Amino acid sequence: MGTNANEDASATSAAVDYALPGPYRVRVLPQLEHTCAKCFPSCTGLSCLSRIKVYVPRVEVSPDALFPLGEVERGATRSRAEDDAMEAPYPVAIITPGFLIDGDAYASIARRLCSWGYVVVTYTKTESVAGGSLDDELSTAILDDLISWVGSDVLISPYADAEAVYLIGHSRGGKISMLQATRDKRIKAICLLDPVDNTVYAPLGVGYPSALAAMKVNPSAVPPVAIVGGANGGECAPAESNFAEFFAASPSGAVARDHPPWGISCGAGHFDFVDEATFVQKVICPEGTIDASATRDLSAAVAVAHGERVFRPSAAPDDDILERTLASLRSQWTDRGVEFSSVKRL
């Protein structure tokens, strides 16, 4: 009996394709705003304000399931998706944007994660390059406060498990996500998209700690890690502080909580990870050698697969999950005429 059960679990796991949209429909709540109360006096007024968008999984329930004729009929007509609707609250995935990037720039990744049963939060801080930027410590405090707010907001909290948090961060947002992850037990997994630590533009100093140093000092505090990096980051993601350094600092073995770090590199430019790069972004950072939409597909697939292996583990080994996901992407890219050879595991 036990053997058959394991075989069934493995077969079910093998049939799941994390490189495709999940079974949930996506509901986007009206834009919300939140002011970081715990950030005072480091920031005041509008400088503490974030604009927030929340994506909530939605399950279409059949009329027969809503109005069952009896226990037998209800059990016969209720689908797996309808059973999954009873799993709320869902894990919370929070996407932290890069420096001066709008949270809406990651809508495609947010929608993909939500379709797999995550309450996804994107946010945009109030800052500008003209003297109104927030340092890394304050940005981390805003993220910390945002997690607490998700767990207490009357509109979101019924759907969201704020003790099962998944952080996704791009560029500087990857660094901020990692700083928070090393300090917060609510965070169970983290996915970094072309992360950047301290650079000449944000040198090590007061308000600008190193996330790489935090990982090395306390590896047991680092949750399971997945990283997708672009090989064409240029000065926007210099080699001494880029994704490869984050992967090298990621814990492995028992310290990795039974989930070894995943590292993927590809021929992406630093801003290929956002839905639509601006003209200025395209000018200041090198463009990638692969289609930007493929980079986003890769990022979304790895983010989903990593989240599922941590929050909804199956009988399949972690390495098999990643290889199946990459194989599915390779097939999709081949059909689209996109070269896959730049995608490599670290």
From TrEMBL:
<dbReference type="InterPro" id="IPR029058">
    <property type="entry name" value="AB_hydrolase_fold"/>
</dbReference>
<dbReference type="GO" id="GO:0047746">
    <property type="term" value="F:chlorophyllase activity"/>
</dbReference>
<dbReference type="InterPro" id="IPR017395">
    <property type="entry name" value="Chlorophyllase-like"/>
</dbReference>
<dbReference type="GO" id="GO:0015996">
    <property type="term" value="P:chlorophyll catabolic process"/>
</dbReference>
<protein>
    <recommendedName>
        <fullName>Chlorophyllase</fullName>
    </recommendedName>
</protein>
<dbReference type="Pfam" id="PF07224">
    <property type="entry name" value="Chlorophyllase"/>
</dbReference>
